[in-house]
């Protein structure tokens, strides 16, 4: 029999988005190793089999389940949430990890691609699961943002409804990550007193697939100075599991410590406006 010490998350249920690869894959595996029942939500079952097999080998055949989720597509998000909710299980840990960088275009649901996937997808999924999370309290919602948010010059409400304007898509990525930090802070304020706490974070500069859109000659060079996905998952895991953080909510973390986010990310009026507009957009 495994003890509470070995399996501190026994009886807890976690949902991790984008856990077929990168930081999310390590996060899902480590939560399962600590005893959590884990749901992995990704775009492709085929590309998730390896991660599912790894977790089953480590934590047992029923430790993990797969859900289909494309965060760029509201219909897919609604279906994913419906399927999860129909299971009737609690949800103690929602890890909003999935995200893309450096890709251009528009999401299926009509938003600038990074904003549509990284923010709107996360916003809708969290909204749909929120009642279940509240009824499972104490519970946590962890959103993987980025230090790129410091570079955002603000949210242009017209631009986030149009195709990516810049060539690199990095300004748009920064704004989507600003939205992640603002969302997590606002959600924390709205959930005060419910037993559900929120966390956003920078995972470090991690040698994951997130750089897949960077041209080949640059990519291997860039990756040289980066930390591993194992290291990159540590701040997420800390926010999800550390008992010391149970009394904190709405903060931004870097290297497992709270850090002051950028000026725009600390603006409650901007957070409120983002919330109101996002709510209207998902109707
Ligand atoms: N790596 C870094 O240095 C770094 C730095 C700061 C922040 N971050 C953030 O960390 C998080 C994890 O990134 P990572 O570095 O682990 O990158 P990754 O290896 O590229 O993993 C990203 C995950 O997000 C998923 N995803 C992308 N678009 C999606 C969509 N439309 N619907 C559902 N899932 C989608 C990917 O699925 P597919 O495999 O199907 O594409 C993949 O599972 C992201 O939010 C990223 O912005 C990373």
Provide an overview of this structure.
The chain is an alpha/beta fold and 283 residues long. It has a single domain, classed as NAD(P)-binding Rossmann-like Domain (Rossmann fold), CATH 3.40.50. The chain is built from nine helices and eight strands. An eight-stranded mixed beta sheet has the order 3-2-1-4-5-6-7-8, with helices on both faces. The chain is globular and about 50 Å long. The structure holds NADP nicotinamide-adenine-dinucleotide phosphate (NAP). The site of NADP nicotinamide-adenine-dinucleotide phosphate has 30 residues, from helix 1.
Beta-strand percentage range:
5-15%
Helices and strands, in order, run as EHEHEHEHEHEHHHEEH
Structural class: alpha/beta
CATH class: Alpha Beta
Helix count from the secondary structure assignment: 9
Largest sheet: 8 strands, mixed
Major sheet: arrangement of strands: 3-2-1-4-5-6-7-8
How much helicity do the residues have?
A: 25-40%
What gross morphology would you assign? globular
Q: Determine Rg (CA atoms, Å).
A: 18 Å
CATH superfamily: NAD(P)-binding Rossmann-like Domain
Regarding quaternary structure, what we see is single chain
Q: What's the domain count?
A: 1
CATH topology: Rossmann fold
Bound molecules: NADP nicotinamide-adenine-dinucleotide phosphate
N-C termini distance: 47 Å
DSSP E strands, number: 8
| Known CATH architecture | 3-Layer(aba) Sandwich
The average pLDDT is 96
Sequence stretches where pLDDT stays below 50 over 5 or more residues: none
């Amino acid at each position: 029999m495994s003890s509470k010490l070995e399996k501190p998350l026994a009886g807890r249920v976690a949902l991790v988005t984008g856990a077929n690869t990168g930081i999310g894959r390590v996060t899902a595996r480590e939560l399962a190793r600590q005893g959590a029942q884990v749901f992995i939500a990704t775009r492709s079952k085929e590309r998730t089999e390896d991660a599912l097999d790894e977790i089953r080998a480590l934590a047992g055949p029923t430790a993990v389940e797969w859900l289909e989720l494309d965060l760029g597509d509201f219909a897919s998000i609604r279906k994913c949430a419906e399927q999860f909710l129909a299971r009737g299980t609690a949800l103690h840990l929602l890890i909003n990890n999935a995200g893309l960088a450096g890709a251009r275009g528009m999401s299926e649901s009509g938003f600038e691609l990074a904003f549509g996937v990284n923010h709107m997808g996360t916003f809708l999924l969290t909204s749909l699961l929120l009642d279940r999370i509240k009824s499972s309290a104490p519970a946590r919602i962890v959103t993987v943002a980025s230090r790129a948010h410091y570079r955002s010059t603000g949210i242009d409400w017209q631009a986030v409804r149009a195709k990516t304007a810049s060539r690199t898509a990095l300004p748009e990525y920064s704004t989507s990550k600003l939205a992640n930090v603002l969302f997590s802070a606002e959600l924390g304020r709205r959930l005060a007193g419910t037993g559900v706490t929120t966390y956003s974070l920078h995972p470090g500069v991690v040698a994951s697939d997130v750089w897949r859109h960077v041209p080949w000659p640059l990519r291997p060079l860039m990756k040289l100075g980066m930390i591993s996905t194992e290291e990159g998952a540590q701040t997420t895991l800390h926010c999800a599991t550390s008992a010391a953080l149970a009394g904190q909510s709405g903060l931004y973390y870097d290297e497992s410590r709270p850090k002051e986010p950028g000026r725009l990310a600390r603006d409650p009026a901007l957070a409120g406006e983002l919330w109101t507009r996002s709510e209207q957009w998902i109707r």
